[in-house]
Amino acid sequence: MADPYAPMPDDWERALAVVAHPDDLEYGPACAVAAWTAAGREVTYLMVTRGQAGMDTMEPAEAAQVREREEWEAAAVVGVKKVEFLDHPDGVVEYGLPLRRDITAAIRRHRPEILITLNFHERWRGGDWNSPDHRHVGRALLDAAGDAGNRWIFPELAAEGLQPWKGVRYVAVGGSPFAAHAVDVTGTLDQGVAALEAHRSYLDYLGPDHPMADARGFLERKVRTFGERFGGKPAIAFELIGV
């Protein structure tokens, strides 16, 4: 039997969640976000794209507007008051200095103690291949966590008033096949379901036979599975990486 999950650290006040697309956080991590905001912690969302290439039945410009609106609704459900978008092109996000700089600027601006992202490893738990957007954003975030504290990397940011921030302690990775920590979401599952259901345009696009189209069923199965390694309590699991 796999080792039990350890509880996520709770000695922090501010988090910045950085993901590639609107809805990335709603497939599980948002349940934990709701628990954190309910406990008085501040969580800010940063979307690298607007998800404009996510539905081939909708033109990118329209999709961007729809998905941005739905992300704002989803964030509000779980107590998140700030959502920002970087406007990198959906589907072709490139790892490189521009992305690292943009994320570094956000870290310096919001000064979080914890960063949250989605699985950036090559594969998901079930073995399916992960998307390049997820892989590139997660790895850029890990590098930006160090860049944010070094005044000689992207020195122009300091000139813009964004002073170095060395307060990031770790990155929490949702959906990771290497998760070893978890958050009890007993009281926030309903909020997580409502947040995922806010992405109705994308769920409808997936079709009724897709396993994620049933938001409640999808999340209930997930938290129950994680809970088997967390004392039987509904849980969302994370890989915790020190930085």
From TrEMBL:
Signal peptide: none
One Pfam family linked to the record: PIG-L
Keyword Transit peptide assigned: no
UniProt keyword Zinc present: yes
GO molecular function, one term: hydrolase activity, acting on carbon-nitrogen (but not peptide) bonds, in linear amides
Entry keyword set: Zinc
GO biological processes: glycoside metabolic process
PANTHER family hit by this protein: LMBE FAMILY PROTEIN, N-ACETYLGLUCOSAMINYL-PHOSPHATIDYLINOSITOL DE-N-ACETYLASE-RELATED
Name of the protein in its database record: GlcNAc-PI de-N-acetylase
Annotated organism of origin: Streptomyces agglomeratus
